[in-house]
Amino acid sequence: MSQGRWQDLRAALALWIKEPGSRRQFARALRYHLDKNASRFVVQVVKQLPSAPAPAARKLVFFAHYDPQDEVDPYVVFYLRQLRNLGCEIIFVSGSPWLKPESAAAIRNDCAGIYTQHTLSLDFGCWNLAWQQARRRGWTLQGFDQLILANDSVYGPLFPLGEIFSHFNGADLCGVTESLEGKPHLQSYFLAFNLNDRTRKFVEVFWSKFRYVVPKLHLIQRYEIGLSQQARTEGLELKAYISSQATRQAVLDDEQHQHRAEALERDVNSMLYLWDILISRFRCPFLKTDLPKYNRYGSRTMERLEEFLRHSTEYDPRLIENHLRRLGFRRGSDTSSIK
After folding, report:
1. Residue 113 CB coordination number (10 Å)
2. Are 94 and 59 spatial neighbours (Cβ–Cβ below 8 Å)?
3. Does residue 85 sit within a domain?
4. CA distance 123 to 252
5. Based on the domain organization, do 217 and 250 belong to the same domain?
6. In a shared domain, residues 317 and 173
7. Would residue 30 count as lying in a domain?
8. Does residue 274 contact residue 146 with C-beta atoms inside 8 Å?
9. Which of 202, 60, 58, 192 is nearest to 134 (CA)?
């Protein structure tokens, strides 16, 4: 057994002992390892995929969702609608198994298929189910120009999504931002494969080898970071809409930014530490939902989020305020002032 596999086994065993509630997830993961059938995880088929995608659709989206109150929040509806307006076919998979029918009804016209499952391997587990449902319904990647992996961990788009797609030409796998934490990788809240013979083969092999991973850190290492590493190993060209080099130069130029010293001393997650630079300087179309919830790094700009968004973006900040209010978040930023 390789050292990496041995470490995975030790971590899984520790989680099994420490968190009895995770044992059902391990059992599901093991069963999938044996039969490769993710369809057994489906709890609700809210909308079944048709037997073929719309002929005019050129982009296929796998969208991962989770909500602790089994809702599809209006900020998610807005996001899906912007994708749909770009001609995307969307397969929506929620890790909230008992998604409320009246809430799901808001996205029926925007999604080709809507499924729910018990959370397993977070976003990648949802995307794998979307892949398997597409295959079961006879869908293939032929006829699509792009495959997009997206989730609801971000507010947006803050700017028209067409801006990032126009930048994605000339590469095989693209993302909005890249991170140097761990190993260089495209951040997985939004990934786009430009489909060609190489990338179609890569995607098919990737999902055929997919295994559900329960410990979160190992999931990140194997799939969020690992996807970019595997793509590079296979000779695919990767491209970020906002590169780490461009971000570093922007930090060098902004001598007043409160996280400048940290960002220059070590590799930080730019979506968390430098989010305001990404939006105001590079028109980053997304804001992580955790930022206004918790503001863990004490961003002073977050304290005036409404003013910042209205001045710098085309996004309605009430979508954020209403989401936070519904979930009971009143701390993390002064979003209570958003009207």
Report:
1. 20
2. no
3. yes
4. 34
5. no
6. no
7. no
8. no
9. 60
pTM of the model: 0.89
31 assigned to some structural domain? no
Residues 56 and 183 occupy one common structural domain? yes
* Helix, strand, coil % in the chain, rounded to nearest 5: 50, 15, 35
Alpha helices by DSSP H, listed for 50-100, are 74-85
Nearest to 287 by CA among 102, 118, 155, 91: 155
**Given a cut of 90, is residue 338 above it in pLDDT?**
no
pLDDT at 212: 76
Find the CATH number of the domain harbouring 61.
3.90.550.10
Q: Which of the two residues, 30 and 67, has the higher pLDDT score?
A: 67
Q: Is residue 92 part of a domain?
A: yes
**What pLDDT does 15 receive?**
46
Tens of pLDDT, residues 150-194: 999 999 999 999 999 999 999 999 999 999 888 899 999 999 999
pLDDT of residue 1: 47
Q: Which two tokens stand for residue 128?
A: 């794998």
Q: State the total domains in the chain.
A: 2
R_g over Cα of the chain: 20
Q: What is the pLDDT of residue 281?
A: 96
**Scanning the structure block, which residue is given the tokens 């700009």?**
301
Query: Domain span at residue 56?
Result: 38-241
> 193-236, pLDDT tens digit by residue?
999 999 999 999 999 998 877 667 777 888 889 999 999 999 99
Q: Determine the Cα–Cα distance for residues 303 and 308; give it in Å rounded to an integer.
A: 9
Structure-token pair, residue 91: 């397969």
Residue 139 has pLDDT above 80, yes or no: yes
Q: Which of 93, 118, 122, 92 is nearest to 213 (CA)?
A: 122
To the nearest 10 degrees (0 to 180), the angle between helices 305-312 and 275-282 is 20
Q: Say whether pLDDT at 17 is over 70.
A: no
Residue 191, classed as helix, strand or coil, is: strand
Calpha distance 322→214 (Å, rounded): 32
